[in-house]
Specification:
By secondary structure, this protein is an all-alpha fold. The protein has 2 domains: 20-58, no CATH class; 77-130. 66% of the residues lie in helices and 0% in strands. The protein is flat, with a radius of gyration of 32 Å.
């Protein structure tokens, strides 16, 4: 029997839980308590691979935490950048923290630049209207 193009010979598909993977999982499920006992025993005996496996699967990875660090930034973006780099040099900031702060200073400098251009343009337009 031939099937028309686009129509499946099994429209409902394979039933969930009937494949090879499910059978493997069921087999492992029965053996899992004994496997876990063996793994824990190996870890207690100093097997670093067993320790690593247990820790990776049970303990969430540590995430870096940022702590507030007051830094005198100065009046200009240039002095702020110098202060941040000095804080990295002195160990007051991590390179990641410094990078985030420097990006913020760059954005602030661009906003200030746009604002200055806006003010200059307004002043020019006012001067043109007066003439």
């Amino acid at each position: 029997m031939t099937w028309t193009k686009g129509n499946s010979g099994n429209p409902t598909g394979k039933k969930p839980g009937t494949g090879h993977v499910q059978k493997i999982r069921e087999g492992l499920e029965k053996a899992l308590p004994e496997v876990m006992k063996t793994l824990v025993k190996q870890a207690k005996e100093g097997d670093t691979a067993a320790i690593k496996l247990i820790l990776e699967r049970t303990v969430p990875a540590l995430r870096p935490t940022d702590t507030p660090t007051p830094i005198p930034l100065g009046d200009t973006p240039f002095t702020a950048c110098k202060s941040i780099m000095a804080a990295v040099e002195n160990g007051g900031l991590t390179p990641g923290q410094a990078s985030t702060l420097l990006q913020g200073i760059g954005i602030t400098a661009r906003v200030e630049e746009v604002n200055n251009l806006k003010e200059r343009l307004a002043a020019l337009e006012t001067a043109i209207r007066r003439t």
